[in-house]
């Protein structure tokens, strides 16, 4: 007998983020997620004298600041959990490593698998939740995935070993590819060339099929895990009908041409890790721009947030962000003024609450090597506000 099978369909266009009194976040654990992005810095900066040298210390500091979730890159393309003692090596990744803010850009050597196991055991002992995400670093060994299918094929055996060692009870989601389709060794450029340009109907259909196909494969293999790809905050993603279990969207000011036009950020991007000569001018322009344009920048960013929030409610996809809001590039330097960036971060918690976000982070720099990390009171003020919402 042939039984009828319903075709999938989704409501669009209502603009509502909830139905009646139901809020899916009330059924999730934790009910609110305060997340910090530690990418693979927690591994590459674990060398002697580095900011993540003492795992107990940095995890205690994260809890003290009110964070309950860590977003981590376990490097599934190069770490084998059944051979954790393998020593990974890598030369410097940029010409001026001291100008790279996040993971270690200097030469690296160490048993990253052993360190990963040590770190995760402490994470679970201390009761943190975590998210896993793949960035694809510039490693000399291991797979170099050129599309999402190849990266998915690396995730599958890695997560089987992960389940054996750690389980998935505290895993909020697995992000197959950070800021897809970037970081896939030229995948974006190839697809733009082959499918008539980004956001063309042909490109959209290819991307939809690739993402949904890989998500389907991962759900079949690991039904107890949520899967997704994290995205830049471009509202055109909403039209692709991606079958995400969670959406981690990254909202940045450089998407507003009024910001780049005043700060010249787009002009400076090619020289970010080569010189600090532009820092003073860039910082002064950011402060001046912020002084007169802050309400407009915030309104534009809130509009995007509202659109993704509506998608979240209509499709049943909890909305989070683990890196966002002001400039995606900044670091501690005598010529860089952080005041405008921190003010922007303080708006973000208010907007995250208003638009029903499940997860939120204040900015892109919540790692112990940054000076702002030392301001416990500042972090706690924002995390407490979000957690109590």
Main attributes of the structure:
three-stranded parallel β-sheet; 11 helices; single chain; TIM Barrel; six-stranded parallel β-sheet; 389 residues; alpha/beta
Helices and strands in order, then pairings?
Blueprint: E1 33-39, H1 41-44, H2 55-64, E2 69-72, E3 88-90, E4 108-110, H3 112-125, E5 129-133, H4 148-166, E6 171-175, H5 187-194, H6 201-221, E7 227-228, E8 231-232, E9 247-250, H7 257-263, H8 265-268, H9 279-315, E10 319-320, H10 339-354, E11 359-360, H11 376-387
Parallel strand pairs: 1-2, 1-11, 2-5, 5-6, 6-7, 8-9, 9-10
Antiparallel strand pairs: 3-4
Summarize the structure.
With 389 residues, this protein is an alpha/beta fold. Helices cover 39% and strands 10% of the residues.
Q: How would you describe this protein?
A:
It is a single chain. The protein is built from eleven helices and eleven strands. It has helices at 41-44, 55-64, 112-125, 148-166, 187-194, 201-221, 257-263, 265-268, 279-315, 339-354, 376-387; strands at residues 33-39, 69-72, 88-90, 108-110, 129-133, 171-175, 227-228, 231-232, 247-250, 319-320, 359-360. Helix content is 39%, strand content 10%. The chain starts with 32 loop residues before the first strand and ends with a helix. The protein is an alpha/beta fold.
Can you tell me the CATH class? Alpha Beta
User: Which secondary-structure class do the elements indicate?
Assistant: alpha/beta
Q: What is the number of strand segments?
A: 11
Number of domains as seen in the coordinates: 1
> What can be said about the biggest beta sheet?
6 strands, parallel
Report helical residue fraction.
25-40%
Name the strands of the widest sheet in spatial order.
Answer: 7-6-5-2-1-11
The general outline is globular
For the residues shown, what is the average pLDDT? 94
- The name of the CATH architecture is Alpha-Beta Barrel
Could you please say which CATH topology applies here?
TIM Barrel
User: Approximately what portion of the residues adopt beta-strand conformation?
Assistant: 5-15%
Order of helices and strands: EHHEEEHEHEHHEEEHHHEHEH
Q: Report the uncertain regions.
A: none
How many helix segments?
A: 11
The gyration radius over C-alpha positions equals 21 Å
N-to-C CA distance: 51 Å
In CATH terms, the superfamily is: Glycosidases
């Amino acid at each position: 007998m042939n039984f009828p099978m319903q075709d999938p369909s989704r409501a669009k266009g209502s603009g509502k983020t909830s139905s009646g009194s139901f809020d899916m976040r009330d059924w999730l654990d934790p009910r609110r997620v305060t997340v910090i992005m530690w990418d693979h810095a927690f591994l590459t900066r674990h060398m002697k004298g580095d900011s993540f040298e003492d795992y107990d210390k940095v995890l205690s500091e994260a809890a003290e600041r009110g964070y309950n979730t860590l977003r981590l890159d376990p490097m599934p393309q190069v770490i084998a959990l059944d051979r954790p003692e393998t020593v990974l090596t890598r030369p410097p990744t940029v010409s001026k490593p001291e100008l790279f803010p996040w993971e270690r850009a200097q030469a690296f050597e160490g048993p990253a698998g052993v360190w990963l196991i040590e770190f995760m055991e402490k994470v679970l002992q201390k009761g943190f939740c975590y998210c896993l995400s793949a960035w694809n670093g510039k490693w000399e060994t291991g797979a170099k995935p050129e599309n999402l299918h190849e990266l998915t094929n690396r995730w599958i055996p890695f997560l089987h070993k992960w389940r054996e060692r750690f389980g998935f009870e505290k895993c909020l989601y697995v992000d197959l590819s950070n800021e897809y389709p970037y970081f896939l060794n030229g995948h974006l450029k190839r697809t733009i060339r082959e499918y008539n340009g980004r956001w063309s109907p042909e490109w959209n259909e290819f991307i939809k099929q690739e993402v949904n196909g890989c998500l389907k494969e991962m759900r079949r293999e690991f039904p107890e895990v949520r899967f997704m790809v994290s995205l830049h905050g471009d509202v055109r993603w909403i039209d692709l009908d991606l079958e995400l279990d969670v959406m981690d969207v990254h909202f940045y000011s450089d998407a507003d041409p009024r910001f780049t036009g005043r700060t010249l950020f787009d002009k400076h991007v090619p020289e970010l890790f080569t010189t600090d000569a532009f820092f003073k001018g860039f910082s002064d322009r950011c402060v001046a721009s912020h002084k007169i344009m802050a309400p407009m920048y915030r309104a534009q960013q809130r509009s995007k947030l509202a659109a993704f929030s509506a998608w979240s409610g209509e499709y049943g996809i909890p909305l989070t962000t683990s890196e966002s809001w002001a400039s995606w590039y900044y670091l501690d330097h005598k010529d860089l003024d952080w005041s405008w960036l921190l003010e922007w971060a303080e708006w973000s918690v208010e907007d995250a609450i208003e638009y029903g976000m499940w997860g939120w982070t204040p900015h892109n720099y919540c790692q112990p090597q940054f000076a702002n990390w030392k301001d416990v009171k500042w972090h706690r003020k924002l995390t407490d506000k979000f957690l109590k919402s």
